[in-house]
Design goal:
Layout: H1 2-20, H2 50-65, H3 67-70, E1 74-78, H4 80-83, E2 98-102, H5 108-118, E3 126-130, H6 133-137, H7 142-159, E4 165-168, H8 181-195, E5 201-204, H9 206-210, H10 230-246, E6 264-265, E7 275-277, E8 295-296, E9 303-304, E10 316-319, E11 322-325, E12 333-339, E13 346-355, E14 360-365, E15 369-371, H11 375-378, E16 393-400, E17 403-408, E18 411-418, E19 425-431, E20 434-444
Parallel strand pairs: 1-2, 1-3, 3-4, 4-5, 8-12
Antiparallel strand pairs: 6-20, 7-9, 7-12, 10-11, 11-20, 12-19, 13-16, 13-20, 14-15, 14-19, 16-17, 17-18
């Protein structure tokens, strides 16, 4: 035991010695402060102990060694789950300039303390955040954790009012880890409410992505119910990819898809020609609207978006060959984009869609809505075997007379689904981000 204690003491001394050479002219040190006095926020600052102190210094020494290499990168900020990406992010985002600013055991107040030096002073192009679980494990309330997240976002917005901010909702864990599902979900609800209406912030529903049927961490992705395995990081990377594509970090060129013989394109991949808003029918207002109720968009005059790359409200955008229904700042915002044309003849419609975790949307066939979502998490077709989460999936709808047959990647969704005699094609937005591409139709005239 004496030998182990001596080794630990020597390790900490060596780390502090290295840190001494990395204090800054502005009287800033990478070492842990002696107290949390004056640090914004309310949660615990650090879990304490020599192990965390050593890790803090080691990680921040590493950050200093990479300062110029990381300048202008997309920064991932957080605790051990973020640190687990490694500097190469496990090869999931090759070609993107990324910087890892995760420290195992860190808390929101730790992030607040080091945010300026470790992130903002390096002019980040964007910030991806996952933090809060260590405060929860240390006994902090949901209100305290959400309040500290508000401080982090406030500091980021002071630095730039245009820099994109992606907040990953707190991952599920387990009550056995002092992280009960009910409290985690309350944290996520409070954070979502605090960010509501802020176009600079995008929330990614990583809680639903990683939760099992009881709201705890999926054991196949979290071996210790707290940290991800390689399969978990692959799922997280897939969930982030659609947002990074919308923000211009990945998939920066349209694909070279060619429409099959006999089909015509309904979306040219360059603008919204042929699409627009239609007048919405009157809708009865609820007597007592819920605080979390979706916003229903009401259109009083039709709009035509020919030649435009986004709708008048910015919700529908054309980005590198994709028709993107962006994540609504309201949390849920229900509206539809319609073709200018109507389709009275029998037809076959084909398109590809991609959904962020638990995203909800729909494809309207002459008027009725066929649910088009992140099916496995959002339903209703939760038993599909060929659905590819957070990847591109093909939807095909064949209309014959007054019925439609719909498949996803060849698997049956609806066999005899009633549809009107004529009507347009529509794409709905509700929650999360949805993307559509390769929208084409073959009419039987």
């Amino acid at each position: 035991m004496i030998q182990k204690s001596l080794i630990r003491l020597l390790l900490v001394s060596a780390v502090f010695s290295a840190a001494a050479h990395l204090s800054f002219a502005e009287d800033y040190s990478i070492a842990l402060p002696e107290s949390d006095e004056g640090i914004p926020g309310q949660g615990i600052f650090s879990p304490g102990g020599e192990r965390f102190e050593s890790r803090w210094i080691q990680r921040r020494t590493h950050f200093e060694s990479r300062r110029e290499d990381d300048r202008g990168a997309l920064f991932f900020v957080g605790d051990s789950i973020t640190q687990g990406w490694g500097d190469d992010f496990r090869g999931h985002f090759n070609g993107v300039k990324l910087a890892n600013r995760g420290i195992g055991g860190d808390t929101s107040r730790g992030v607040i303390y080091r945010l300026e030096r470790d992130v903002l002073s390096l002019d980040p192009s964007g910030v991806v955040i996952l933090i809060g679980t260590n405060e929860l494990g240390g006994g902090a309330t949901a209100e305290v954790i959400a309040g500290d997240m508000k401080v982090i976002v406030s500091e980021l917005k002071k630095h730039s009012t245009e820099m994109p901010i992606i907040i990953n909702t707190m991952f599920p864990s387990s009550e056995s880890k002092k992280r009960p599902s009910e409290t985690i979900q309350e944290v996520n609800r409070l954070v979502a409410a605090a960010m509501k209406g802020d176009p600079q912030v995008v929330l990614l529903d990583t809680f639903t992505l990683f939760a099992d049927e009881n709201g705890d961490a999926r054991a196949d992705l979290f071996p210790d119910l707290l940290h991800l395995n390689p399969e978990g990081y692959a799922a997280w990377a897939a969930a982030l990819r659609p947002l990074l594509a919308t923000l211009g970090y990945v998939e920066t060129e349209a694909d070279d898809f060619e429409v099959e013989e006999g089909f015509e394109s309904l979306f040219n991949g360059e603008d919204l020609t042929g699409w627009g808003f239609r007048v919405t029918p009157p809708r009865r207002k609820p007597k007592k609207p819920r605080p979390d109720a979706p916003v229903w968009v009401e259109i009083s005059e039709p709009e035509n978006f020919d030649g435009k790359t986004e709708s008048s409200d910015g919700r529908y955008q054309v980005i590198n060959g994709r028709l993107v229904v962006t994540t609504p700042v309201e949390g849920r915002r229900i509206q539809q984009l319609w073709t200018q044309r109507e389709f009275p003849n029998d037809f076959t419609l084909r398109l590809e869609f991609r959904a962020t975790p638990n995203a909800d949307s729909g494809v309207f066939i002459r008027q009725p809505q066929l649910q088009c979502r992140d099916y496995i998490l959002a339903g209703p077709y939760t038993e599909l075997e060929s659905y590819r989460p957070q990847d591109w999936n093909e939807l095909e709808v064949a209309v014959t007379g007054g019925t439609a047959c719909a498949t996803c990647n060849g698997e049956l969704l609806e066999e005899e689904w009633p549809v009107p005699e004529t009507g347009p094609i529509g794409l709905e937005g509700d929650r999360g981000q949805m993307e559509y591409r390769r929208i084409r139709i073959k009419e039987n005239k």
